[in-house]
Amino acid sequence: MQYKSSVVDDIDKLLWKKAVELAARDKQPRCCTVNYAPGYVVRGSQLKNAIYGCKVAFVMFFGKTCPYCQMFDPIFRQVGERYKDLANFVKADIEEFYQLAASLGVMGTPATVAFVDGRPVELAPGFMTAPQFRSFVEGVLRYVGCR
To answer: Quick check: 77 and 38 in contact, CB under 8 A?
Structure first.
């Protein structure tokens, strides 16, 4: 009988440990309160909502006729899908947000700007491969602590 009691005690200890781990995971700070679908094209005040809706937001400035933007779009969406619970990944038309883009130092498209707490922290100009963009995203998330 003691053998069964010992096994039950071990199982109880494991279950308790797992319950504590799950409870701790729920207490981790949420990085987003307003999520947009990765690659969503924002209009007007939606850009402000996307930037302030998450602790981290990645905004890809694009041009409608830009071939590199069209090539980067699936990469942006794919990486965005992977990290959508940690950050917003939205696109902004350079023509609509020209003044903001110019003030951020965007000189061509595509250009991706990382925002943390609503402030721009990093600008990645031009086309990036999937590993390059994933590395860029992970670096910003690691810096912020939303990984």
So the answer is: yes
